[in-house]
Amino acid sequence: PPQTSEEELFGTTEESPAFAEFLDVLGQRVQLRDFKGFRGGLDVTHGQTGSESVYCHFRDKEIMFHVSTKLPYTEGDAQQLQRKRHIGNDIVAVVFQDENTPFVPDMIASNFLHAFVVVQLERGRSQGTLYKVSVTARDDVPFFGPPLPDPAVFRKGPEFQEFLLTKLINAEYACYRAEKFARLE
């Protein structure tokens, strides 16, 4: 079902097959215990941030994704603060949608999240998995490439992965130039 509130976003425990397939585009699933690469603030010793995550080594950069469904779910905590602590402190978020649901960035209360790359599964096509991409950022975030093609629909594969990871890295750099972060330098 579509998630239209922060509680619904962070309260999801199931990974749809489409979401699992999309995670494979982002990177490889890794076991967190004793993980030796960049950990992105995740616990690799005691398992307090879950047992696995998605990691990628791309163009001399290591990326550890904070995947909401892989972070611990706390029964009885409507806000899922364990999950929000990681995702709410990121400055760029990927939002995956199984279906066409309006995404409103204000849905997630965060002082840090400045840019969202929304990836939506495109259904009803016979030529493999397609993803529609849209980007939204706070007003003070400068433009970051690569520009979205028109239409912004990609076939699953290495070119899409390259585009998406490049867009995410550039989004992070652009966010640091936004007023809020520029003042911190």
TrEMBL record:
Tagged with keyword Ribosomal protein:
no
The record's GO molecular-function terms, alphabetically, read: GTPase activator activity
Q: Name one GO cellular component term.
A: cytoplasm
Q: Which residues form the Rap-GAP domain?
A: 1-185
An example of a Pfam family matching this protein is Rap_GAP
Name the GO terms of the biological process aspect.
Answer: regulation of small GTPase mediated signal transduction
Q: Which Gene3D superfamilies match?
A: Rap/Ran-GAP
Domain of life according to the entry: Eukaryota
What does the protein in this record do? GTPase activator for the nuclear Ras-related regulatory protein RAP-1A (KREV-1), converting it to the putatively inactive GDP-bound state.
Protein name listed in UniProt? RPGP1 protein
